[in-house]
Amino acid sequence: MALHSLVTLNNRIVIQDIDSGELFAFFLVEPDRHDAKTGKISISTSLGAALIGKSTGTVVAWQAPSRIRRFEVRSVSQSS
């Protein structure tokens, strides 16, 4: 996988919760390919929209159902 610095469509994204330290990895995909069970998050979801265009190292605030969560973009990669 080639590393990139900006979050774009079809990237594999790793984010880290600022408060808990927990890591999350998923692919950012078109809405018709969304499948959270297999790690594919749509760019049209609130999290996908918050991440698109952000760069590695950026902290993003996202309104989760229960509270605002903050994530740092740890890595961005795409299949070559």
Automatic annotation (TrEMBL):
Domain of life according to the entry: Bacteria
InterPro entries the UniProt entry points to: GreA/GreB_C_sf, Tscrpt_elong_fac_GreA/B_C
Listed name of the protein: Transcription elongation factor GreA/GreB C-terminal domain-containing protein
Species of origin: Desulfosarcina widdelii
Residues covered by the Transcription elongation factor GreA/GreB C-terminal domain: 6-77
Gene Ontology molecular functions: DNA binding
Pfam families: GreA_GreB (PF01272)
An individual GO BP term: regulation of DNA-templated transcription elongation
